Amino acid sequence: MTIERSEPATTADERSMLDGWLNYHRETLALKCEGLTDEQLRTTSVEPSTLSLMGLVRHMAEVERSWYRRVMADEQVGPIYFTEEDPDGDFHVTEADTWAEAHATWRAEIEAANERAARFTLDDISLGKHRRTGESFNLRWIHTHMIEEYARHNGHADLLRERIDGSTGD
After folding, report:
1. What angle do CA 53, 81, 112 make, to 5 degrees?
2. Residue 1 covered by a domain
3. For 52, phi and psi rounded to 5 degrees?
4. What is the residue range of 85's domain?
5. C-alpha 59: how far from its chain's center?
6. What are the backbone dihedrals phi and psi of residue 138, each rounded to the nearest 5 degrees, phi first?
7. Which residue among 24, 38, 106, 165 is buried most deeply as judged by most CB within 10 Å?
8. 87-93: which pairs have CB atoms within 8 A and are 24 or more residues apart?
9. Residue 8 domain-assigned?
10. Can you tell me the distance from the alpha carbon of 146 to that of 69, in angstroms, rounded to the nearest whole number?
11. Which residue would you say has higher pLDDT here, 13 or 7?
């Protein structure tokens, strides 16, 4: 599968710009994972870290689910990979975990996020609240935070991919 990634228009309106940059960063993470085996995708950075490309994708599935489904739309959906006993379970990949499952779950959460976001304007306040802080957010804040979250983790993905096969680039 070839990943299609394009930069947002330089003169787009605010909503299109935010949607565009969010999708750009989502596809950047997909590019960093493209062409690798499950074993390579489970490769961690350096001990004692459990950070891996597959773990980043699983983490972003959780983040998409949390912000768009739980907070913005106030859906009562549970976690995918983490538990109370293992709050970092999204990063704790095992030999049994596959790219096919992680990728499909992540893509499904992106689709669900896009469907939820389409129901709101940038100024609309979330129907739910953050589970730890109890705060409400507007969609603009959530989109901006998600761009930041992906951009930060794409930096991690750059380093992981370079460690795995020497590939560098954006």
Report:
1. 85
2. no
3. -140, 165
4. 14-165
5. 6
6. -90, 165
7. 106
8. 88/50, 90/55, 90/58, 90/59, 90/61, 90/62, 91/50, 91/51, 91/52, 91/55, 91/56, 91/58, 91/59, 92/50, 92/55, 93/42, 93/50, 93/52, 93/54, 93/55, 93/58
9. no
10. 13
11. 13
Taking the CA atoms of 156, 158, 159 and 163 in sequence, report the sign of the dihedral they define. positive
Cα-to-chain-centroid distance, residue 124: 22
pTM summary value: 0.95
* pLDDT tens-digit series, residues 49-103: 999 999 999 999 999 999 999 999 999 999 999 999 999 999 999 999 999 999 9
Number of domains in the chain: 1
